[in-house]
Design goal:
By secondary structure, this protein is of the alpha+beta class. Helix content is about 50%, strand content about 20%. It is built from twelve helices and twelve strands. The protein has a four-stranded antiparallel beta sheet with strand order 6-5-7-8. It has a two-stranded antiparallel ribbon with strand order 1-2. A two-stranded antiparallel ribbon has the order 3-12.
């Protein structure tokens, strides 16, 4: 009984709170831009399935909390379901004035803006969270100077030496040791040209990071690229930096952009086989991470929320029908053709998209359970 209560309070509740916040922001993006575009909203739900409780506002929108806390939706007037699939028979029976209040009846650019607003809201939330964290806490940084080269590592094989200062990676300038870690970790088995400064001279050294599995402080196994260099307080000149509000926002933009680029790189690694698909996480792993971060304090949970917000934004931009990216793909096709896809083609695409999303969720959840058991 105590173990069950601890699991609920330590993992489930933090997970639900974090996910609900991110879903609320995402759906609020859809809602606000949709209302601004003159589209009527009939429901705003946090969660799926049966309604637990809610209320209807003066505009006729039902705001509700639903049973299954694994997402949410905004349902527009004239939609067939929560995936904003248009109800063609219902639309055909509407007057011109009624149709103008639907998502399907709005101008193409208004539909695109309404759909894109959800992921954009997630990205803006991540930027805001990182900006607050940088503004309040600042951060510790270290210069990219090598204090030790691990024996038999990729760096040792390439000839890197203690005292080398890393200046650039594949031509991109770096400023901190953390920049090196970020760049290398998502490039296992990919050749990197490392520009170093040694004895006052610059030289280019090719290094191939090795795919390695590390264990974090919670015992989770993480696969990444490593080259085998270390810095210390003396060589790296460890220091705490603070930021003005404007600088904090700029750093928030950079941090969010790095997460986005790192995610695309990870997907590329999956396609090329440089990383295993068992790194994909579903709701079980997110719940586990939420609980683990909660043990480190509120700042760690907030930081996790920012990372997950970016992930939700990117996931929804995938060009898969039933997701925001699928709708945007339909709109792009409509812009090229001069007319939307037929109702039959859209229906088939939505069914395929739903099957793809459900399959991905099952696969990710199975990975989560397998990793927990194993």
């Amino acid at each position: 009984m105590l173990a069950t209560a601890g699991f609920i309070t330590g993992y489930i509740i933090p997970f639900i709170l974090v996910l609900s916040l991110l879903v609320f922001v995402h759906e609020m993006g859809h809602y606000l831009v949709g209302r601004w575009s003159g589209i009527r909203v009939t429901a705003f739900s946090i969660g799926f399935g049966p309604e637990l409780f809610g209320f209807t506002d003066g505009h006729g929108t039902r705001w509700k909390l639903s049973l299954i806390p694994l997402g949410g939706y905004v349902k527009f007037y004239g939609d067939e379901d929560a995936a904003s699939r248009p109800g063609h028979e219902r639309l055909d029976a509407m007057t011109e004035a009624e149709r103008a209040q639907t998502l399907a009846g709005a101008a193409l650019w208004k539909r695109a803006a309404t759909v894109a607003a959800g992921p954009v809201a997630n990205f803006l939330l991540a930027i805001a969270i990182f900006a607050v964290l940088f503004g309040v806490y600042g951060r510790m940084i270290a210069d990219p100077v090598v204090s030790e080269v691990r024996p038999d590592s990729a760096a040792a094989e390439a000839g890197l030496q203690p005292g080398d200062r890393l200046m650039a990676l594949d031509g991109s300038k770096i400023r901190t040791f953390d920049d090196v870690r970020r760049y290398v970790s998502v490039r296992p088995e990919a050749r990197i040209i490392v520009t170093i400064e040694r004895g006052g001279k610059e030289m280019d050294v090719p290094v191939v990071p090795r795919r390695s599995e590390i264990t974090d402080q919670f015992g989770n196994k993480i696969e990444m690229g490593l080259i085998g260099i270390v810095t210390n307080e003396q060589s790296g000149n460890f220091r705490h930096v603070t930021y003005t509000p404007v600088q904090a926002v700029h750093q928030g933009v950079i941090e969010t952009g790095q997460i986005i680029s790192g995610t695309f790189r990870y997907i590329g690694n999956l396609v090329t086989g440089r990383m295993k698909a068992d790194q994909l996480g579903g709701p079980v792993r997110v719940a586990q991470a939420s609980g683990q971060m909660a043990t480190l304090g509120i700042a760690a949970v907030i930081q996790l929320a920012a990372v997950l917000s970016v992930s939700i934004g990117l996931l929804n931009l995938m060009p898969v029908p039933v997701l925001d990216g699928g709708h945007l793909l339909f709109y792009a096709i409509e812009a090229v053709r001069g007319k939307p896809l037929g109702a039959g083609a859209q229906e088939v695409a939505f069914r395929i998209g739903l099957a793809m999303v459900l399959s991905l969720m099952v696969f990710a959840t199975w990975n989560d359970i397998s990793n927990l058991i194993g």
